[in-house]
Every structure is written in structure tokens, then in C-alpha cells.
Amino acid sequence: MLMQEPVANNSNKIEHDPPSVEVLPKEGLIVNETGEAVLTCSFSANPPNVTEVVWYKDGKPAKMVHPQATPSNNLKGGPPPGVPPFKPSNKLVLDGIMRAEAGSYSCHVRNAFGRGNSTNNITVDVLYPPTVRVGVTPSVAAESTEAVLTCDPVDGNPALLMAVRWHHDGDPIPGGGESTRLTLRNLTRDQSGNYTCRGLNTAGWSRDSDPQYLDIHCEY
Q: Domain tally for the chain?
């Protein structure tokens, strides 16, 4: 008579896998330059003690955190009784962040059973005030004609200017606003001089542009 072999009971089998990893916040971060950005390499791991957290910026290693304790190889997961599981820092803190640190960030986490890569990348966008350039057209004009001033962003994030301030020989010119263009009509000789501008984006005001000289001649 054939005897049916007993079926092994695997209900108590403990699964050991590499960590499951994602980067938070999923929506990414927008921060002003010199501010702080905090990224979290969130993971679920069994065993819970991990041996390595590595950050990447634009696909290249950004920062590595090594544990100061020997990882446990206990098959039940975790360190010996009475010893709390080791948790290396899973946060990347960019304090006083600079524009060069903007980019796409990801991470990986390793435990005794392998490495888990983050399933997502997040974008860190660093905002900073603009750098502007003033233009004067024409740079030499006759009285009673007109000249056009332009204030153009050459750098900045975001690049869009929300407001512009104009100066003539250091004195404010009425008529600033959202426009990056100012027309001086019916020119007089006392309007000769150096013109500068400043631009505003959501990160703040620019410094004064380098000056451009407008030379106005008598029409006779």
C-alpha cells in the first residue's frame, strides 16, 4: 500500500529579500538657493538592519552612509536579542543648498540579502535670483527722438522676470513695472548718462546690471 508523503508546512517560512526602496517626497522639491532640502530614502527590509545607504545625483554617487556596527546574519532577521536593529541614516540633508545641487536624485539600500534600488527618482529644483543685462537702443540719439531700454535675464531660475526697476545715474526712473522694455520719448540732453536695471523673479531681486551709456546730442 502506497503511503502519501506529508506535505511540508511552509506557513512559518520567513522570507528574506533585498530592501524595497523609494525616494520621498515623490513630488520632488522646489527650494530657494541657500535654503534646505531634505530627501528620504524610504525602505522596507527583512532583515530590517541595513548595511548601506547610497545616494545618487543625476546617476552618479552623491553621498554614502556606512554603518558603524557589524550587520547581523541572524536568519530570523535582525540582531541578537536585546540589541536594537542598526538603522543608518536614510536622509540626505542639503543645507545651504546651491544651484549646482539641483538635479535628479535616487538611492539604494543594502541588507544581508542584497541591494534594493529606489523605484523612482525625484527632482530637486533650486531657485535663485536673476542676473540681468540692460540694453540701450540707440546708444547715441538726438534730442526730441526716443531710445528704448531693455532689461534681459541672462541667468536665473525661473528665467521669467516679474518686475523691473530702472535707474539713471543711480536715481530711480518712474515707469518700472512688469515690462522688460521702457521707451524714453522726447529725449533731452539731461537724460544722457548711465542706465542700469534690476529684475525680480520668484527667488528675489537681481543685483544692478552693468551700466550702459546713452549719449544724447543737440539736434542743431
A: 2
C-alpha cell at 160: 521669467
* Domain extent for 148: 131-217
- What DSSP character marks residue 13? P
Amino acid residing at 27 = E
Q: Are 165 and 171 spatial neighbours (Cβ–Cβ below 8 Å)?
A: no
3-state secondary structure of 191: helix
Give yes or no: residues 54 and 149 share one domain.
no
Q: What is the pLDDT of residues 133-155, one digit of tens each?
A: 999 999 999 999 999 999 999 99
10 Å CB burial of residue 52 (0-12, 13-18, 19+) is middle
The CA-atom distances, in angstroms, between 93 and each of 19, 36, 55, 108, 176 are 22, 7, 11, 16, 40
Question: What are 56-111's pLDDT values in tens digits?
Answer: 999 999 854 444 333 333 323 344 455 454 456 789 999 999 999 999 999 999 98
Q: Which residue has the cell 542706465?
A: 195
